[in-house]
């Protein structure tokens, strides 16, 4: 079970960092704050992520995967909807800058 526990700690760091980055931005959140709020050791952090840049990259990948899953969910879950209505739902998903696109936009702008 050590691998499962390590994966859980890495996910906890990832979720904590994502929330902090969304709230304060990439430049205003340091590794020490992420470590403290994730309740992991510095060694654990560096063992999983190696650097803040790598953590940011993984957070963005996590968000991108979430967006993909949401689009696939709209396509496959709403079988009763017409194609136009599905496209509208997908558009609104992408137009909501406070949703899953918030973190990628913070990285760009």
From TrEMBL:
One of its GO terms (molecular function) is DNA binding. InterPro entries: Homeodomain-like_sf, HTH-type_Tx_Regulator, HTH_TetR. Keywords: DNA-binding. Residues 7-67 form the HTH tetR-type domain. Residues 30-49 bind DNA. Pfam families: TetR_N. PANTHER family: ACREF/ENVCD OPERON REPRESSOR-RELATED (PTHR43479), ACREF_ENVCD OPERON REPRESSOR-RELATED (PTHR43479:SF11). This is Transcriptional regulator, TetR family.
């Amino acid at each position: 079970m050590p691998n499962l526990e390590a994966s859980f700690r890495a996910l906890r760091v990832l979720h904590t960092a994502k929330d902090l980055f969304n709230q304060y931005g990439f430049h205003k959140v340091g590794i020490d704050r992420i470590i403290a709020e994730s309740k992991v050791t510095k060694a654990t952090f560096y063992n999983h992520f190696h650097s803040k840049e790598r953590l940011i990259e993984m957070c963005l990948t996590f968000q991108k995967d979430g967006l993909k899953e949401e689009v696939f969910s709209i396509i496959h879950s709403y079988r009763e909807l017409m194609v136009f209505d599905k496209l509208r739902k997908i558009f609104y998903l992408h137009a909501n800058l406070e949703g899953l696109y918030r973190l990628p936009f913070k990285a760009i702008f």
